Amino acid sequence: MTERQDLVDALIHRHSTPATSLTGPAPDDVTLQRILQAAESAPDHGGLHPWRFLVIDGPALDRLGEIFVEAMRQKDPDATEETLERERLRAQRAPMIIAAIAREEPEHAKIPEIEQLLSAGIATHQMLLAARALGFGAIWLTGLRVYDDNVMRPLGLADNERLIGLINIGTVKDGAPTRGKRRREAAIERWTG
C-alpha cells in the first residue's frame, strides 16, 4: 500500500476515542509540536491564521475543572454537589486538553468570517488526525461548556475569539473502545448546469 493510500484509509476509518479511555502519557513537547504543526497547513485565505490552541495539562486541568464548576453554578445556582463534581471531573478524563480557539476579524475586507471559522475548524481537525497518526487517541468535545462565556473568559479569550472545542488527548487504554461513526457510502452527485 502506498503512502497516499494509507492516508486515504486513515481518513476513511478515522474515529474518536472516548475521553474516559485516555490515560497518560500525553504527547511530550516534541510530539505536541508536530501535532500543532499539522494544524498550520490548514487552508488559510489571506494568511490570517484565524486560530490558536491552548494546551492544558498537569495542575492546569484542576483549574479548568474549577472553571467548569463555576460556569455550572452560574447557569444553575441550585446544581447539586453531584452535578458540580461531574463538571469538575470532566477536566480530568484525559491527561491533556487542547482548547481550540477560532479568532475572527469581522471587519476584514476580503475574507468573510465564515472562511475564518472554517479555517480554524480544519486546523483543529488536522491536529486530531496528526495525534492519531502519532499513536495517540483524541476526541473533539463541544457542548454547553465550550460555548459558555463563563468558560471562555477565564481561559483568556479576546472579544473576537470563540472556543470551538476541547480536544482531549492521551494514550489509549488497553482494550478501550473507539467511537466510530456510522459510515455512509459516499454519494457522487453531479451538477449538470
- Cα end-to-end separation: 38 Å
Q: State the name of the first-level CATH class.
A: Alpha Beta
In DSSP terms (H or I, runs of 4 or more residues), the helix count works out at 6
The share of residues in helices is 25-40%
Strand content: 15-25%
CATH-defined architecture: 3-Layer(aba) Sandwich
- The shape, in one word, is globular
Q: What low-confidence regions span 5 or more consecutive residues with pLDDT below 50? A: none
CATH superfamily heading: NADH Oxidase
What number of domains? 1
What's the CATH topology label? NADH Oxidase
Rg from alpha-carbon coordinates: 18 Å
Q: Major sheet: size, sense and barrel closure?
A: 5 strands, antiparallel
Count of distinct strands? 5
Report the order of strands and helices.
HEHEHHEHEHE
Domain Nitroreductase: 27-170
Keywords: Flavoprotein, FMN, NAD, NADP, Oxidoreductase
EC number: 1.-.-.-
Cofactor: FMN
